[in-house]
Amino acid sequence: MKEELRYDWVDLLKAPRMALSLQKIWVEFPPLLAGFCFYGLCTFLALKAAGREAGQGLLPCIAAAQGAGVLSWLLWLVGLAGLLAAALFAGTAVARAAYLELRGETFFIYRELYAFAFKHLKSALLGPLGIFAVIAGIALCGLIVGLLGRIPGIGVMIAVGLSPVWLGVAFFMVVLALVLLFSIVLAPAVVATVKGDFFEVITETFSITFSQLGRMVWYQFVIFAAAAVSVAVLGALVKAAFCVMNAILSAGMGADYLTVKAKAAEFLAAWFLPSLDFTAQSEASGWLGFWGGVLAAVAAAAGFIVVACYGMAVLTSGNTIGYVVLHKIKDEEDLLELEDDEQDGASAAPGEPPAAAPEEKPADEPPNTPPPDLPPAAS
Known about the structure:
Number of domains: 1
Number of strands: 0
Structural class: mainly alpha
Order of helices and strands: HHHHHHHHHHH
Radius of gyration: 29 Å
Helix content: 55-70%
Distance between the termini: 72 Å
């Protein structure tokens, strides 16, 4: 059944309910896990290049490493770009599912969503990348101007005398940075609804930024607040379930399970809080130590699903609803009423053309027989 929208910010509160779906959460899981692993590998190499031990647990960051060189920062940025690409890929698939659900089409399979996201990934990536390229080009020009300021005599006039011009350019860069942030959150929604290319992602982002800036900022605040509250509630429920599981297994296994649980807590502390010095250590060894690692991995995976997968699903669903609402306000066009030609080939495998619709046969026409002779008129 089609979702009834008010076409205001209240519609954004539907996002936590729409995201609380095993389909959407699972669609987020593989790409985000792959992106996180790629980011961890690149950060590990960056820390090694900086001469630092990669002992920062499961959440490493090069920013905390002192003395990091250009190579370390480049490796870390490559990992961050890979994580962002994975998030945009997963976001496009979830945004497509949210858009179909808004239209009342609740049946979709992962293969179709991933095929759609892969087909339109270039648009979702090149939109923000194009804006970033403009910012980088302006920054490079500013660096060249700064080097010209070293010229004796006229250098100061170029660098300082034209400071009002450079201030205006810097303000434009700040605005572009805001547009870049909006393009990252809106790109999956634009691609999933109108199937636009990267140019349409850029133009739609600029249009919304300059015509609906207040609403866009307010919508992001509402979406992030809804995501934080919903993640906290789901996390509390998962933690309660974990405590119930511990109580049941402790009653059955006794001291052995308490040892395994203590070892799992030690692993989690080392993974997520490596900078703190924990003096208490469990007495688990052998198989009990191994199962302590397994229990810690289960807890970490549950946290990843709740925080990363469900949280990103809420953000993506909320921004999809927000884009539909803003497009309606801005252009007076309801995206939910548009014909979606992508559905014609939804059941076809990726790379195969959609099945042609059967041709309608014209109805049988009566035989072309002359009309019967009329009787002669009476004289």
